[in-house]
Amino acid sequence: MIRVLLTVAFFVLPVWSTEFETTFENSNFILSMPIDWTGEHKFLDYNRLRMNEHIRDDNWFAVAILDIENYLGHDIVNSAAFEAASSVHSDTPFVTQTEPYDYQDGQIYAQLYRFYAGYADEKHRISLGLQKISFGVGRIWNPTDLFNPKNPLALEPDEVYGVFSTIYTYSPNSLSQINAIVAQRADESFKYAGRAKSYIGFADVAINTVIADDVTMIGYELEGELGSTGIALRSEGGWFYDKTVQEEIFQGLIGADYAFKNSLVLMGEWLHTSKVFDKYEILNTPQRAKNYLVQSHDYVALGAGYEFDTLLYGMISSIVSIDDNSFYITPSLRYSLADDRMLVLGAMLYDGETGSEFGDYGQTYYVNLKVTF
To answer: At residue 289, does pLDDT exceed 80?
Structure first.
């Protein structure tokens, strides 16, 4: 039924819509990266052409986002690491990307990134289709997000798969929200979630719950300011029962941000998990957005951002695995070439003893040119 409603919405809505917004975005990465953890560096040219279509008429809306992704670099594209990464797909009951076409030195395919429609007014919002579900308040980690959590070690942590779902939001007032979510997965099973959020005088507080065939969770979110200091505090966490590993697990974080008047921004987060797994257990456990399966009881993340001028912005962040003292650092410089063009220089650096969580990764360096038109 949900597929029928979605199809009808996309064919009928444009008939009376008066607002169309179509944009294209091309993001090109040139990466120097290790091949299969041997330490030998090879070049990869990754290009993503994205088409965004937004349609709106009064309270009705529809969104479609289509990507064409091209990977050029013979040694990387034919490596075991690339093959393993390419085997991961969206947890949806239908295929969201075409079969990759392999040519002499690369691979290309198309991907449906987002595709949903809905209705919104002052108190109600409902959307259905391939969309992002946002749980949690963490900047680096989101323990309570069992749908499409970001990967802090990814080249683009916020680029996550869509979820085939229906999301209903009721806002009794400007400070409160109630969410109900139903999502269908690749095996045709359903994942259900609920969320109630309100401001209670000193902070925004939310209670979350997720129920699925393989996991159940009850979680919380807290976000507010420490008095009048300007320090933003946040915390989120969840109690999970994972049926695939037969374990009860708690994972939670505490974080803080502070912005100085000179544009310097500092950030920190501490993530704690009650149960840890070795890398082989994690690889052999069906993930399906189980970001609470980790190798260390504790991680600490620190970050800073500084605006040198209106065109140049620098960022650096790091993650330390406390159990084995291995760490990850990602510095970057972003330069605005024009309103619609941006150049980024960055690196993904790892260190630690052999066999530690981050010690066996090599270093990656990249240049990213992003153009919007």
So the answer is: no
